[in-house]
Structure formats: structure tokens, C-alpha cells
Amino acid sequence: MKVIKLDAIDSTNDFLKGLSQTQNVENFTAVTAKTQTKGKGQMGSKWLSESNKNLITSILIRDTLTSIEDIFILNMTVALAIVEALKKYKIPAVSIKWPNDIMAENKKIAGILIENSIKENGKIDSIVGIGLNVNQTDFENLPKASSLKIYMGLDFDTENLLESIVDEMQTYTTKIKNGETDSLWQEYTQNLFRKDIPTVFEDNKGLKFMGLIQGINPNGKLEVLLEDDSVKQFGIKEITMVY
Ligand code: BTN
Predict the structure, then answer these.
(1) CA–CA separation, 37 and 42 (whole Å)
(2) Locate the BPL/LPL catalytic domain: which residues (predicted)?
């Protein structure tokens, strides 16, 4: 595995994107940084991470997806790869909060931001950005966040964690290439945060309702069993989980 280690950068995702467009960067090359000045989160948010405490990385995945419809499958495999890597470190109660936050019990410990670009030959390059809270213990302004250290009471080596995650990503992306999407779906569903547990959701009009997460549909929408016994599917921008 090739790792490009940086001290400070605006965003490892942007850096790797630029590099992969101008140079011949090997598949699964990872860029890490001790700190980011413009760390990017999901839906235009910022990703904040204390300097030199956590895993801040972007990994290039070349030519694995063949259509833009497969994007959610890559999201699933990256989330699963992180969960599997963490299970190997004996971290219990790790789950995936749909669509792709990684949780330890009911706190978020990692986020994923994947940026895809279709090349002239029709193939897709994906920059998989991962922020994993490892040894940071102060989350005063982020009450829903936690870290491996808070959870396990000990320090972890971020480089070893990266290696384990990339190993798992290689295994899982082979499954995509082999068309084993059904088993990926099953595994993802089994690891869903609050699956089959009564959960409060809020829709984009501010209305709260109760439901049971059943799984996800082929488009990556969340399937929720509502109190009137109907099953409804929600897109990423349609609901948030209040728990
Ligand atoms: C989220 O909002 O949950 C996604 C967070 C993704 C953060 C990572 S840190 C490394 C990479 N570079 C970025 O600018 N963002 C991702």
C-alpha cells in the first residue's frame, strides 16, 4: 500500500483529486494529513479534527465502479470495510448509521466523504475520504461525536488502522467487481445502527415520527416501517434520525 504523508493540507480529498488527475497514481494510494485547514464533511459541512490525533485520509479507488448507479454500493463497502477493520481491533458495538456514519454505541466515530469523477473513457475514479476519530478526547463542541480512545480507554496507532481499513477495502471492492452485491447488501443491513429498534425521525418539514429501520432499497434509500404498518422509503435529504 502506497501512503503519501502530509503534515498540513486544505483537504486530503482535494489534494488526491488534483494528484490523480495530473499523475498516474496507483489504485488504493492513500494520502494522510496530521491536520486539514478545510476538511470537508457530508453535505457541505466542515470536518473538524484535532491536529495529529486522528486518522485523516483519502484513498483512490480506480475503475471499480462501472456506472454512476453503483455509487451507493461503494459507499456501503467503505462503511463495511471500516466496521470490519474496527471489529478486528476488538471494538464492540460498532455500526453504520445510514447512509455512512460509523458509530460506536450511539456516538459518531467516523465519517466518509466519497467524491466520484467520470473519466473520458467512461470509467469512474473515486476519492474515498475518511475521518476516523482515534486519540482525540475533547469533543466539547461536538456532543454527538466520540473516538476510539474515549470508547476503549487506550491510544491507537493511526497508521495501523489505515492499513487494516485499506486491506478490508481491497477485499470488499473485489466483491463489487465479482458482482457479489447481494451479500454486501445483507452485510450492510445487518450492521445498520438502530435496525429494528423504535427510532424517532424528523422529516424535512420538521415533523417527528416513529419507525423501525428495516434496511435499504437498491437506490440506497432507507426503508422504515411506520406505526400504521406501512413501509416507506426515504432519501438522504428527506429525513434525519433523532434516535
Ligand atoms: C462526514 O461529514 O461525515 C464526512 C467526513 C469526511 C472527512 C474526511 S477527513 C479526510 C477527507 N478529507 C476531507 O476534506 N474530508 C474527508
Answers:
(1) 16
(2) 1-177
